[in-house]
Amino acid sequence: MRKLIDLSMDIYHAAPTFPMDPQCEVIVHNTIDSIGYNISQLSMSTHQGTHLDAPFHFLDDGITVDKLDLNKCIGDALLVDLSHKQPKEPIDVGDFAAYADRIGEGTRLIYRTDWHLQFQHKHYFTDFPYMTLELAQWLADRRIAMIGMDVPTPNPTDYDPIHKILLRAEIVIVEGLANLGDVGTDAFFFMAAPLRIKGRDGSPVRALAMVDTD
């Protein structure tokens, strides 16, 4: 038997966003009373809530989201528990030392900080535990397929060089995950398929964990 665990944050009208990003709007377009069925209009960033980054996000010559190899964001994943990390504390290579022999080419790696619990607060976008440049390069050198995290971006200040290190290595970045504490194991099947948005930089995803219960 397997169970599904939803690792996604809600999308709703006026959901929090980075200050420079488009605002999230979920607007009633028509209703059962008006035309016989309910239909809504969505207006939001390609990086709203739980989402993934394609290389084109920071690299003009990078792969766009519709061209991504979906095997990078769907398959067996490794979860590293970093929930002991404090706000604004660095996440570095040493935090993954115990898992180094399980992190290599093609690994789908996810780390947990439980920072998604801060989503309703302004400091969600600024004060989270952050990835160091050294860790980004270490992951790129190991040629992992994907890095996932329950924070809104790897680093609030060095976001440009860190994204470029990871995306030049064609590592898919899945950001804004939630509920990783419910997974209960460090090995599970992960799914985070993007919308097929032609020629663009990223996409919201419905991220799921599939866990064996036998």
TrEMBL record:
Keywords: Hydrolase. GO terms for molecular function: hydrolase activity. Its EC number is 3.5.-.-. Coiled coil: none annotated. It holds the Pfam family Cyclase. PANTHER family: CYCLASE-LIKE PROTEIN 2. This is Cyclase family protein. The lineage of its organism: Bacteria, Bacillati, Bacillota, Bacilli, Bacillales.
